[in-house]
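From the shared-data thread, chain only:
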Amino acid sequence: MPVELILALAAFAFVASITPGPNNLMLMASGTNFGLRRTLPHMLGVNIGFVLMMVLVGLGLAQVFETYPVTYVALKAFSAIYLVYLAWKIASSAPPPVTSVAEAAGKPFTFLQAAAFQWVNPKAWAMVLTAMSAYTLPDRPLLSLAIICLVFGLINLPSIFTWAVMGTQVRRFLTNPARLRAFNIAAALLLVATLWPILTSSRLGEH
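Structure, as tokens:
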């Protein structure tokens, strides 16, 4: 793959990974409510789960959705319902029963939950399908797939780590239960707002 194409891919991966989306908003909320250490499995699940999703889509899973368009509709509906459920869980999180926000009630996402979430994350689908269509060389599809996955894997991890760290910094200002509840509600509303691309596009890969 030409160097200039790799640089363009890296720029796309950075912008796509660092901008707000379901993963980043949930990681920030997790960092705020549970701290960085307890958020690490969630973060690693996002990174590894996304790369695995990219591998499987690159190896031909996308053809299933091309052949059976109804699966896009089903995925859209399920994604929307699940994101609303997650938003409700964040908004209704109980304030910490003790003075430390680190002891907030509830549990952070596990590694497997975060990895599985990528399959119903509309932004993840948009990132994968765009990357595969824009940066795959027709004469070297497997090499292209390997480079795309490597670039995204390396860039995505520090990007999502940044959001988790942002959440831990916010914790210092949210020791008051009322402020923590307000933050969780705001994060939930932002998460619901990420449904807009699902509801306004005919396919998950469109912007």
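The two ends are 26 Å apart (CA to CA).
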